[in-house]
Amino acid sequence: MKLILNGQERVLDEVAPDMPLLWAIRDLAGLTGTKFGCGMAFCGVCTVHVDGKPVRSCSYPVSAVAGRKVTTIEGVSGPVARAIQGAWTRNSVPQCGYCQSGQIMSAIALLAENARPSREDIETAMSGNLCRCGTYKRIKAAIVEASLDLATGVKHG
């Protein structure tokens, strides 16, 4: 099976079509930034982008990404990713860090689609991402800050 993983064409040999994308990314491609959480698409820890849209890779069959663009936390780039990463750091978002790749992937997808999200837009986009440490206020603040950074070209915070 062929897919485009982080901008590079990859061939995954002898992969079962119903294998969750998460395990293909971690076990077959060796990219461990995408984490396993609940295994039922409830926590958001395993979020990756498929053709720019966030998906829960733990319940997404690898057969559904044949020939499509898959981006993991290791492959994020561009102005939106840089704005999110900078705001994340300035707002000291991570604590234990386990949920961060999924949180960041969801935040990047939000700002890529809606550069000026309302608080309600942020709540909706991030509602499927759980954080055991409870850094939700800092996550939301970082998204607002990244949005301002993108709009003005000036780093806030």
Protein described:
- By secondary structure, the protein is of the alpha+beta class.
- It has two domains: 2-72, Ubiquitin-like (UB roll) (Roll), CATH 3.10.20.30; 79-152, [2Fe-2S]-binding domain (DNA polymerase, domain 1, Orthogonal Bundle).
- Helix content is 38%, strand content 12%.
- It contains five helices and five strands; from the N terminus they run E-E-H-E-E-E-H-H-H-H.
- It has helices at 21-28, 79-90, 100-113, 119-126, 136-152; strands at residues 2-5, 8-11, 47-50, 53-56, 69-71.
- A five-stranded mixed sheet has the order 2-1-5-3-4, with helices on one face.
- A hairpin with a 2-residue loop joins strand 1 and strand 2 (8-11).
- Helix 2 crosses helix 3 (100-113) and helix 3 (100-113) packs across helix 4.
- It starts with a strand and ends in a 5-residue tail after the last helix.
What count of domains describes the coordinates?
2
Query: Which class of the largest domain in CATH terms?
Result: Mainly Alpha
| H-E string | EEHEEEHHHH
Q: Which word captures the global form?
A: globular
Helix/strand-derived class? alpha+beta
Query: What percentage of the residues does DSSP assign to strands (E)?
Result: 5-15%
Q: What's the gyration radius in Å?
A: 15 Å
Strand order within the widest sheet?
2-1-5-3-4
Tell me the span between the first and last alpha carbons.
Answer: 44 Å
Average pLDDT number: 95
Mind telling me which CATH architecture of the largest domain this is? Orthogonal Bundle
CATH-derived topology of the largest domain: DNA polymerase, domain 1
H/I helix tally: 5
Summarize the amount of helix as a percent range.
25-40%
